[in-house]
Amino acid sequence: MWSYFGPAFVASIAYIDPGNFATNIQGGSEFGYKLLWVLLWSNLMAILIQYLSAKLGIATGRTLPQNCRDQFSRRATIGLWIAAEISAVATDMAEFLGAALGFYLLFGQHWMAAGWSKTSVMLAAAVLTSICVFAILALELYGFRALEIAIMGFVFVIGICYAFEVFLVHVDWKAAVYYTLVPSVSHSSIYVAVGMLGATVMPHVVYLHSGLVQPRVRASIAREEQEALVEPKGNPQHHRLRLLQFELVDVFAAMNGAWLINSAMVIVAAAAFVHLGHPVDSIEEAHHTLGPLLGPLSALAFAVALLFSGLSSSTVGTMAGQMILEGFLDIKFSVFLRRLITLIPALVVIAVGLDPLRILIFSQVLLSFTLPFALVPLLILTGRSSLMQQFVNGRWTAWLGWFTVAVILALNGLLIAQMM
Question: How far does CA 144 lie from the centroid of its chain?
Answer without folding.
Answer: 19
